[in-house]
Fold Glycosyl transferase family 2.
Amino acid sequence: MDYYIVIPIHNEEAYLESTLNSILGQTLLPKKVILVNDNSTDSTETIINSFSSKHSIFQKLNIISTTQHMPGSKVINAFNKGFNVLDENFDFIVKLDADIILPKNYFEVIGSHLKKEPKLGICGGFIYEQNDCGEWILNHPMDKDHVRGAIKAYSNACFNAIGGLKNAMGWDTVDELLAKYHGFLIQTDLTLKVKHLRPTGKAYNKKAKRLQGKAMYSMRYGFLITFIASIKMAAKNKSIKSFWNNIIGFMNAAYNNAPYLVNEVEGKFIRQLRWKNIMRKLYA
């Protein structure tokens, strides 16, 4: 199985070397790794230069977008620019974060899953983060069938069917919804334990708080599904503020007629799928 990796990078001097070494240690190496240096102001580029000069699989791409580390737009803008320098001769494409450590067999297992199941579109492991005692514990996702945005692998067919990654908050949810819309499967593997060196969202600024609600609007959830999802998220985060941030973000997006990420037919499919999952969990 041939694959490419694209890594959006912004000021990752503390973690990048560990991430790149974990790629070099893979039992199945990638054809190419595009290291997209997005306006870093620390020693990130020096680290990139060191690896790219020693190992031909690494290729540097410098871009300048914004100094703000916003979820969605900055990261996917960098990913898309990195992806654009690649050809389409791959079995799967990987969007990877620059602050993780992969198990040595990560991509060998991913490739095996994709090879066995032709309709498998998105695959990945699980994120583990270090607690105050130094223990690596599972960072529980809202949905165990969801592949986290930091470690996503897409089959060539699926990536093309969904039109690539959306340059907006919510990209790592709408990609899976659109994959299902096009008949692809999503698979997670509990044996693939990925160490996340920086807890999720620590680098994001305060402006990001209401983007989740905007994302729910842009995916055409509608108010009621957004309301229910926001309650669930607030319970998981143990924060009533996250509920209100979501609702305000949704209402602001509606008031400003924010653009949708999906068309009406896709939106109808997404709402039906969400209601089906809500009912299934309600009566489980």
Q: What stands out?
A: Residues 264-282 form the longest helix (19 residues). DSSP finds ten helices and nine strands in the chain. The CA atoms of residues 211 and 251 lie 11 Å apart.
